[in-house]
Specification:
It is built from 5 helices and 8 strands, in the order αββαββααβαβββ. It has one domain: Alpha-Beta Complex (Ribonuclease Rh, Chain A), CATH 3.90.730.10. The longest helix has 17 residues. It is an alpha+beta fold.
Amino acid sequence: MKMRVLLVALAMLLMGAGRGMAQAPAEPGKFDFYLLNLSWSPEFCATHAGNRQCAAKPGFILHGLWATNLDASYPYHCAGGPGPANPAAYADVTPDTSLIRHEWDAHGTCSGLGADAFFALARKALQSVAIPAELKGLDHEIMLPPAGLRGMFAKANPSFPAGSVILSCGNNRLTAIEVCMTKDLKAMACPVGIRSCRANAVKVTPQR
């Protein structure tokens, strides 16, 4: 239960950083685009080493694929069917079954898809984003302006339009990158209401 509360609090913190008002209840399938959130696991694990996702020392993990509207509002906790029968089947992209269950309840139910179809789509979204070589196996802390980090992703993903990748940060440290995507998972420029990290420089915790 304590871990569940922690995951919900983390999700709300990440969502509040970049999006507008939650809409609950809302009708499943009625939204404009997806916001893909890839959490930088080393930052989370620096203070939650006992969490099950930390054992493998991953880099970016799939936090969520969030239904979002062009005005930055988002549906939340829509009426939906049961979650995935085997959450562990998605441990390759989200190595924490508690987070998988939470993401289905909070966001997947708003997609208009069944649970397994939603997580298959979320996995496909994750796999469509190339992670910059500089952030793979990072063994020392680096510090860059947000524009520098966004530039890394732009270079690694040349087909992505400008403004499609944004950062989330806390205490001037990278917590996640987010990609605005159409419903068919094409990268798109994020609407004005989707805010990016405003720090002058962001520290990136190494994988260790």
